[in-house]
Structure formats: C-alpha cells, structure tokens
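Q: Focus on the chain.
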Amino acid sequence: MRACVLLCAALALGAPDRSAALLPEEQNVMRVFKEAAPSVVFVTNAARAQTEDMDEFLVPQGAGSGFVWDDRGHIVTNFHVVQGGDVFLVSLGDRVQLEAERIGADPAKDIAVLKVSKNLDKLRPLAIGSSESLQVGQSVLAIGNPFGLDHTLTTGVISALGREVRGIAGVTIRDMIQTDAAINPGNSGGPLLDSGGRLIGMNTVIYSRSGSSAGIGFAVPVAFIRRIVPQLIRYGKVVRPGLGISILTAGQKYYLLGEQDGVAVNKVQPGSPAAKAGLRGLRRLSGGRVEAGDVIVGIDGREVKDFDDLYNALDRHNPGDTVSVKIRRGSRALSLPVTLVNIQ
C-alpha cells in the first residue's frame, strides 16, 4: 500500500522539468538560437568553365554562411564567400537548396547580397539591432551553417571595439567588432547577435595560424550593413562620396615629393566642387617637367596620411555633405570647403 502511494504521488508530480536545472542565461541562449537559426543559410558558389570540347562544367569557388535580410528573398553574406562565382546556391535550414542571383557587393566592407526567388514563405528575416552602443564584455552569439550540415552556435563576449582589419579589397575596415566567440571556417557571413537575438554584426574573419578559431574573431558592425545593403539592393553597388579628383599612386608621389604624408592630387575634374573650391592638381611644364599639386593631409579634422586614411575619412560622409579639406600647397597649409559628389 505504501509503495502504491509513493508511485501514485510520483505520477501525479509528472516528469521532472529539465529546464528547471538550467540557468536563466542558458535558457536565453537556447531561446535565441532556436529563434534565429532558421534565418541562417549556407551559401556556395561555383565558376563556369569549359573543356577543350566546349563542354561546360562548374568549378567550386567557395562556401560560407549567410542570413536572411528581408522577406523579398535578399540574403546577406561576405563578399569573399561569393568572390569569383558565376552560380550561387543558398541552402535553407530544412536542407532546401535554391538558386540565387548576385545582386551586388562591396568588397571594401566585405559585404555581398544574393537574392532567391522561390520559397519566400520559408524565409525568416533576422531582427536588426544596433552597433552604436555596444560595450566590451557584452554577451554575443555567433551562428553559422557551415557546409550545410546543420546550424552551429558559439558564444562569448565582445573583446574590443573599433578594431582595424585589412580587408579583401586592400583598404582597412575600421570600427570592427572583436569577439572571442569562436568563428570557424564556414561560419564567415553568419550573424553575430546580442543577447536579445538582434543582429549586431556579420562574422567575417579570424586571426589564426592554423585556420581554426583562436579566440580572435572579427565582425563587420551592423551600422555598415544597414547603410550598405539597401544601396546594393537598389543600385547593385555602393554610392560613395568623393571629391571629384584623381590622385597620384604612392610611387608617383614618392618620386615627386619623397617621404611626405598625405595624398597628392593628380587631376581635378573641371566643374567639380573640388575645382570650384580651388583644389589644384599636377601641372605639366615645358621641357617635360612637372610641378606637384595640392597634397591632402586632413578631412574634417581627421589626419590623412595615405589613401586608406582618405577613403575611411570620406566613407563617414554622404554625397552632398560639405567637408573641410586640409591641404599642403608648397610651404603653405590651407583649408578648403568641398561639397562631396557621388562617385558610384
């Protein structure tokens, strides 16, 4: 009788609640992963090639992760994941594989946009967060879909902010997010999320001698993604501000000016805001001689030592903005107001 009472009591209590043994932080991580994982996809690309008999075949070029941007079929990933490809495939979480079209790319920020036209009802866009108020020590989650096998999750914290990483296009990507959440091969292009499941960055690169995660991963901040992706969708490229000038190469500048900091102006486009502001380019004199033009050494108080500095200083602005351009003209220092133009 006693045994029956104990058994009945146990049955009345029901099965033990396994979630009760988990910490609130663990339960939150599990919730975020469950909600966000369906938004993360596997991206592959291949290049078309031909045999001597003109038979066409595909050569694999690369693979990585990506994430759903909107319900119109746009997928965001890294430029280096799709670089060199002619044919693109996107695999959803249920292993459904869809052909995708490359809409546009920005190699300078390592961002690309693909678009699928089928199964749009299965797409679940990620919630977009902010990267402007991030703090070192803040918890983050990195989700990938490496090799299309299944979703993976790594967790960690923001290790540093404002990092500079040399990008695939040869210019520095600034204001990068550094995290100790493991970013392994195949996870490039996947989202970096905050503890609320909102997108704060795109996992892009790791620093490692072995090729596997070594606790130093970097993500493109969502502030860049929010600004660039709509432009890629609309124009297929990024609309960038410029001064309306061409510049000398580093070698040409060294030949004329030696080891001086700054960016030397080669030509000023006639009728451009730079021309109206009085910027001067290289002058060709008689006898094959040349005279150096203006050397840009600052933009709106930011020091400009080379093209990388100039690119990133202008990248903070939009066409139509007026900036103060600090130049060196011979032995004189001048500041000229220049309205930026569209150089898409």
Notes: The radius of gyration is 26 Å. The longest strand covers residues 152-166.
